[in-house]
Automatic annotation (TrEMBL):
Name the record gives this protein: ABC transporter permease
CDD domains: PBP1_SBP-like
GO biological process, one term: amino acid transport
Highest taxon of source: Bacteria
Lineage of the organism: Bacteria, Pseudomonadati, Pseudomonadota, Alphaproteobacteria, Rhodobacterales
Family that this chain belongs to: Belongs to the leucine-binding protein family.
Domain Leucine-binding protein: residue ranges: 23-363
Signal peptide from the UniProt entry: 1-21
PANTHER family named in the record: LEUCINE-SPECIFIC-BINDING PROTEIN (PTHR30483), PERIPLASMIC BINDING PROTEIN OF ABC TRANSPORTER FOR NATURAL AMINO ACIDS (PTHR30483:SF6)
Keywords of the record: Amino-acid transport, Signal, Transport
Organism name: Shimia litoralis
Length: 391
């Protein structure tokens, strides 16, 4: 009886020890809600990144990777509570996510409180690695400044006038602020700024204010739009014929579904974070081939970001020799790793991932459902002077 009990106790301890040996990662993201398409891509990419970086074993140094999904429903209060639950009750080693910048800003203090790493992907607002940053925050996704500097390179010039339209929250306002800063010294003038609620569907009033601000200007005139999710401001404003005022519409890259609207804008220039035909490297080759085989479609904008995130997690744990938070921070500061976009590097000062962006010109291709962002030039890390904003 005693021997049976002892054996049972040993077995229980062995099981508990095995469970404790798992590397637990929480993916806290808006699985449902307005950005559901972004979220699915991000999660698919994360899992592909973990698979790629572990050679298909989903283990690091013999320890199994367990990913726990938590759905914020795109609500900041949910993001905060779920990250507390992940660090506290679930005892995860680190967390990744979320989709929304607003949700991310609510989550940042939780990482500091629990002294655990949060790798932000794909939320973009500068303030995440800027004014609201803490040392437990890393970000694999691009920030607003990277979008802004890349688009400024693509759109600026002497005697160019640009009006802007963006969503009225952190993503939009940080993006426009960074864009204006990036235009300094280029000879380009910001003619008007317009902000609209994220759920806007009628852009008539905003468009009229933009047209009135630009109609009497001489020179090249562009309306630069920063928008995430639905509403289709590009299509709706284009239907109002801005060309009668000499205004061209411009925007950055987006997911393939959103770029169906780009077919109406052949020749439009901008800069993008990712399009599957732009990078030329082994990691992207694997992603494109594997994604096509499994999902019968090419990888999208946020799939690449999710994969970069997953690879970063594995490389950081390998480099740190485990999941101790301080060891991870030391390993990740300045860390370089290979992604579908080529080499990325976590900047030591603010833990922002420095990375390439892609200047494009839209081309309409027969048989392709979206406007193809044909590569004009890869903007590499050294081409993009990204400000440090946490100091």
């Amino acid at each position: 009886m005693k021997r049976t009990f002892a054996l049972g106790l040993v077995s229980s301890l062995a099981l508990a020890s095995a469970a404790m040996a798992d590397i637990k990662i929480a993916h806290v993201y808006g699985k449902t809600g307005p950005f559901e398409a972004y979220a699915k891509q991000s999660h698919d990419g994360l899992m592909l990144g973990l698979e790629y970086a572990t050679g298909g074993t989903m283990e690091i140094n013999g320890e199994k990777i367990v990913v726990i999904e938590k759905d914020t429903q795109l609500k900041p209060e949910n993001g905060k509570a779920l990250l507390e639950e992940a660090y506290g009750d679930d005892e995860v080693d680190l967390a990744v996510g979320p989709v929304s910048s607003g949700v991310a800003l609510a989550m940042l203090p939780v990482a500091e409180e629990f002294e655990k790493v949060l790798i932000v992907e794909p939320a973009v607002a500068d303030s995440i690695t800027g004014s609201n940053w803490n040392r437990y925050i890393f970000r694999t996704s691009r920030n607003s400044s990277q979008d802004a500097v890349a688009n400024a390179i693509a759109l600026s010039g002497e005697n160019v006038h640009i009006a802007t339209l963006a969503q009225d929250y952190a993503f939009g306002r940080d993006g426009i602020a960074a864009f204006k800063e990036a235009l300094d010294g280029t000879g380009t003038n910001i003619a008007h700024e317009e902000y609209a609620p994220t759920d806007t569907t009628d852009f008539t009033a905003a468009a009229e204010r933009i047209f009135n601000a630009m109609k009497d200007l001489d020179g090249e005139k562009k309306l630069f739009i920063i928008w995430a999710g639905g509403g289709n401001p590009m299509g709706k404003i284009n239907a109002m014929d801005p060309s009668r005022f000499g205004i061209e519409i411009a925007t950055g890259g987006n997911i393939l579904a959103a770029m169906k609207a780009y077919k109406d804008f052949p020749g439009m220039e901008g800069a993008t974070y990712y399009y599957y035909e732009n990078p030329n490297n082994e990691v992207n080759d694997w992603l494109v081939k594997t994604h096509q085989e499994r999902f019968d479609s090419p990888p999208d904008f946020f799939t690449a970001g999710g994969m970069a995130n997953g690879i970063a997690v594995v490389e950081a744990i390998k480099k740190a020799g485990g999941t101790d938070t301080e060891d991870l921070i030391a390993a990740m500061e300045g860390m370089e790793w290979e992604t579908p976009k080529g080499t990325m590097q976590f900047r030591a000062e603010d833990h922002q991932a420095l990375q390439s962006m892609y200047h494009f010109k839209i081309k309409v291709v027969d048989g392709v459902e979206w406007g193809v962002p044909e590569l004009v030039r890869e903007l590499k890390i050294d081409d993009l002077p990204i400000p440090i904003r946490n100091q």
